[in-house]
Amino acid sequence: MCDRFGGSAPAGQPDAARSGPVTTTERPARVNSLYVFAGLLVVALVARPWIVETLGAPVVRTVATVFVAICVQALPFLVLGVLVSGAIAAFVSPAALRRVLPSRTGAAVPVAGLAGLALPGCECASVPVARRLIGQGVPEAAALAFLLAAPAVNPVVLVATAVAFPGAPGMVVARAAGSLATACVMGWLWQRAGKAEWIAERVRTPVARGGNRWAVFAESARHDLVSAGGLLVVGAVVASCLSVLVPASWTAGLADQWLLAVLVMAVLAVVLALCSEADAFVAASLSAMPLVPRLVFLVVGPAVDVKLVALQAGTFGRAFAARFAPATFVVAILCGLAAGVVVLGVR
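That's the Permease sequence above. Prediction below.
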C-alpha cells in the first residue's frame, strides 16, 4: 500500500501504526459570561409573570422607594468624602501631622484625634494613613487615635449627620463627642497596655510616596468610591428591608428594652460595615429605634466593622487586629452610651 507521497509502507502494519501515534485533546467546556447571560435571559423569560407580580407588590415598591431615598441622600456626601480622602492621600504628607504633635505621647493622643477635623477621610483611607504615620515615627498611640477619629469627626461626616437628623441637632455633637472619646481612650489604652510586637515590623518601615500625585489622587478616589459605594448599596438594601419588613412590634419591643437595642445596633454597625460618610442616612431611616441606640450605631461603625478588621489585620498584623478590634468595640459602645446620655438624654 502506498502512502500519500507515493512511498510504500511495510506489509502487515495497520495504517495507524504507519502514520505514527494519533493523539486527540478535547478542551473542557468553559462557562463564560455569554453562557451566564443566556441562562439568566432564559430564566427571566420563563419567570417573567412571577417577577412582574413580585416587583409590583406594595411592599417591594416601598422598599425600593426607601432604598433610593437613602442612596440619593448619601451619595453627594460619599463623593465629597472620597474626593477629600484622595486629595489627602496624594497631596498631604503625614509628616505635617507629626510636626504639630506634642512630644509627650499622652498629650499627642487627643491632638491626633482632633486632627481628624482638618484631615477628613473614610475609615478605609485612615488605615494606610495611620500606617504611614507610624512609619514616619509618630507614636503608635497617637496614630491609632487618628485612625479612629478621622473617619468620624471630620466635617463631611458631621454635616452629613446634621442633614440626616434635621430634627435632632444634638446628634452631631453627641456623635463627635462619642467618637473623639473612643479615639482618645483607645490611644491611651494602647499607650499603657499595647506592646510593640503586636504590630507587624513592616509597619515601622517608612513608605515612600512616588509617582504622579494626580494619578495617586485619581486612583485613591476611584478605589474608595468603588469600595464605599458598594458598601453603601448593601447597607441601603438592608436598612430599607429592615424599615419595611421588620414588624413594628419588634422595634417597639427594642425601644422598651433599651440596652438590648444598643447591642443590636452595635452589632448591626459591625456587620453592615458602612462608609462613615453615608451611615447617618441609614441610621436615620431606622426611625422606630430610639436616638441613643442609633448614636451607638454611628459611633461603633467608623471605629470597628468587618472590613476594618480585615484591613487592620492585613496592614498591622493579625495579632494587632485580634486585640484592638474587640477592645475598640467595647469602648465605642460605652463612649456612645455616655455621649448619648449626656447630650441626648435616655431616649
